[in-house]
Structure formats: C-alpha cells, structure tokens
Amino acid sequence: MTETIRFGGRFVVEDSVPESVVTPEDFTEEQRMMGEAAQQFLETEITPRDAELEALDYDLTTELMRKAGELGLLGADVPEIYGGLGLDKVSTTLLAETLARASSFALSVGAHTGIGTLPIVFFGTPAQKKTYLPALATGERIAAYCLTEPASGSDALGAKTTARLSPDGKFYVLNGSKLYITNAGFADLFIVYAKVDGEYFTAFIVEKGMAGFSIGPEEHKMGIKGSSTRPLFFEDVPVPVEHVLGEVGKGHHIAFNILNIGRFKLGAACLGSSKETIELASAYANTRKQFGKAISSYPLIGAKLADMNIRTFVLESMVYRTAGWIDAMLRTAEDSDGTPDDGMKVAKAIGEYAIECSIVKVFASEALDFVADEGVQIHGGYGYIRDYKVERIYRDSRINRIFEGTNEINRMLIPGTLMKKALKGELPLLRKIRSLQAELIQPMPLPSFEKPLSKEVYRVAQAKKTFLAVGGLAVQKLGLRLEQEQEVLCSLADLMIEIFAMESALLRSQKILKASGGEGTEKTGNVVAMTTVYVQEAMERVESLAKLALTALEQGDGLQMQLSILKKLMRAPLSDTVALKRSIAARVIRSEHYVL
Asked: Which of 88, 154, 159, 367 could form a disulfide with 311 if both were Cys (CB 3.0 to 4.6 A apart)?
C-alpha cells in the first residue's frame, strides 16, 4: 500500500487510487498467523463448549477469556511495554472478524478488548497503564464500558450519574446508575462516565468491590444470551482521584472516540458473522432436497446466495479500507516507543475517521441483518428452530443496529460531521459544490466503457456529483435549519454510505485486477461481477434517495429542473445482473463458503 494519510470524509470530494487502500489481499504472514491462531482457539476451545457458553456460564466465560489471554488474543491492542502485542488495527480487525463465530463469547471478548481496554490504552496515565493493562492483556482482569443510563442512551451527554470531590480532595464520590452493561456480571474493572459537580462529563476507572458499588440482575435478552448484561448502581462510591481517566470535563473525547473504534470493530464482527451465515446457508442448500433436487439448483436460492456474498464482499472492502486509514492516522499519535501517550492527539487521530466508522457501523449491521434473514429463509422452517445456528445468528444480529449508537443517530452524525469539517476548512466540500453547479447544466455525453470496470468508475463519480448537487441544494434552501430536517439528512447519509460502499468495492477490484497483470481468472471475473452488480443496484438506490431529498427541497419548475439534472447523472448502460448473479452463486454453491 502507498503510505498516504487520507482525512475523513474526503471520499465524497476526491477520488482514490487502488494502491491507497488496504485490502485482505495485503495481509502479511504475521497477520494471517494471528487469524489462524484465533481460528484454532475457536475450534478447540469455544465450539466444543458452545452450548454451555450460550447458557451464560460466568466461570466458563472467564476461564476461556483467560485462555485467550494466554494466547495473546486479549492483548493485541495493548502496547508491548505493558504486556500486550501492540498489533496494528488491521491485525486486530482480523481477530475481531475471526472470533465473531463465537457468538456471545465474541461479544464478551470484544467488549473487554475494545471499549473496555482501549480507554486506558489511549487515555490512561503511565501509572494507570502500568497498573491495569498487563492484567487486562492476560485476562486476569476483565473490563466493562459503562455509558448508557436509564434516561440517556443516544444522548450520552445527558447522563445523570454525578461525581463530587470529597472535602479532603482524595476521592470523587459517585452517585447514579448505568444500564445494559456488557460483561457486568464478571468484570473486575469498569470505565464509568459521570458529571463532576453535575456538569463536567468525566471518565473514571471503577473497580469491583468499591464501597457502595452494586450490580443488578441479568437482563433477559432476545439474543446474545451467553453474554452478561446487567445494570450498575453507585451509592456514594468513593473513587480515588488517581482513577480519573483523562481530564475532568474531557470525558466526551474519550467516550465518543472509543465509540468510533467500537463502531468500526462492530463492522468487523458483522463481517465474520456474514461469512459464517453464507457457509451455513450454502451447505444447507446443497443438502436439502425438494422436488427431487437440491434447493441450491434453483435460481432463486442461488440469487439469494449471490446477494449475500456480494454484500459481504462490499462490507469486507469497507472494513479493511477503514482499518488501514485508522492505522496510518494512529501512527501520527504515537511516541518514539510506539505508545499513544497523548490522549488529545489520539482523540484527534481517531476522530478524523468518525464519518467512516459510522458508515461502516450502519452498513455492516444492516448487511448482516440482510444476510442473516436470507440465511433463515434458505433454511426454511428449520431456520426457525434453535437446533440450527442460523436461528441464533438472526436473533443476535438485531442488537447491532442499536449497539454503539443507534443507526438513526449514526445517520445524523455522518452528514453533520461532514458539514462541520467543511465549515472548519478541513475539506473542500463547499468549493466542490460551487464548481459543480455550472457543470450540471451542461450536456453530459457518455464516455466509452471499453476497459474493465470503466463503467463502474464513471458511475461512482456520478454518484459523488449527485451527493454534491443534493447536498448543495439542501444547504442553499435550509441553511442552519438543515440539522432539523432529519429526513433530508438521512437521505444525504445514505448517499454517502452508498458512495463509500461502491468505491471501496471498486478500488479493491481494481487492485486485484492490477495484481493479476490483466489476466482474466475465475477470481478476477467474480470480483468484477460482484462490483458490477453492486454498483448498478446501488445507483438505483442513489437515484431514489436523491429524488426523495429533491422533492422535499424543491417544487414546481425548480423540482423539474433538478430531476432532469438527476436523470442525466444516472445515465449509463445496464448490465445483465441476472446472469452475473448466477455465475457468482455457482462459485458459492460449489465452495460452500464466502468466495472472491
């Protein structure tokens, strides 16, 4: 990969080259070995005890987490000087993807290694890191992240939990409660957010057993039943001042940027579950016979498997593209010894890709819902029976659209954050909008589409112009009122999501084609087919989203002019997606797993 640092949100105003993105084809031997180690741990330790884990066995969960710690699977994000492996984010993304097959256990591990441990990795003092990180890396101590409250979910800064400094200045006294805390039943360490003097949002490290700290009963959940989810209560809990994480009043920098990482890692987990579902569904389709034939031989079943594989390919391209960017940006926040010791520099580094993290979270959670739903449908009645794992995947997937900020909140954040960056001069959005206006009223002759993927390159460029045209009109018509027009904001967010998805798949496909030396192979043909199908179908959604927004912004002759411009932007020859999906399905059915 070419070593370039791209700043978040620029994908809507600038084009990238294939060499600038990280893809799974770039994995090093070390990264592949880590993935294999996680896979082996899964097969030898987790799968044989799957039923016990899903029955919510605290002792077994913590025992297996410690075994994972012995293998280094819990310390991948922890710097080496504190007992971890200090791996890059591409490596830890691969671990999260691989362990996703462990269902609820994967959630317990993810909550511990991600949102539970990373606040100390990125924002802890040297003393805090020395005290806690070695034990967190081995699993000797388990972490939990405590942000949500009964009256504040999406509105995190509306928290009611308070912290007041004791008269002797040695403690902060916490009062309040937290809700839906993953790992609460067996965690030893809790990252808790409270408002100092009811005003200054601050993060604290709270240890199990502190006076006045209690844990409520387990919640009875729809899915992820093998994970612990309980409320917490704080009644005059004395927390030493040395346990303040970061600075008093700066807790939002920790909370929001750790959520960004959580959103991105959730995308990796959804990717792993999508791949597993394809394996389950394709194997079942080859086994199940109806009317004397395996159901995999019926085109409509094949079309489902093709769609599942295409969505997963696009998601995989988005996840690792983002991982590469975050890696590059975090390196700018490291000291000479490779440790991130300046919390504000880390916050800025992670925050650069807040838009992409939200995009990955939304796309991934909805892609997995689609894949899981189709997986159940392929299983028919058996998919509704708990003896088949696809039933559990279907139930477990639903929480992902709520976790780490609801998809609705993330959709509001995507265009909102883009506009803030534009107003700060961090990307040339408004200049691009102005320069585009004159171009849109000119004739738009179609170019030739002779080279592989040339049509997809053109269509992605047209999608970007569509976003800029609609976004520019929204800013012109609504001004500061835009943030209240949530339907329009949602349309803009979905346009950005589609652009990022299309471009990620396209860049990866171009990179694979180039690596093949231009030779047409079954793999390159399949990659091109998946990209072609996705881009064509995505452009149909782009057109629909643009029409929805335009009709909310304009009327009469003005609307007709905007629709005529949109029609020009959408023009391009169509591909036979039925034939392409049949070829993709054939590869999935033959291999019985996710394929390129």
From this structure: 367
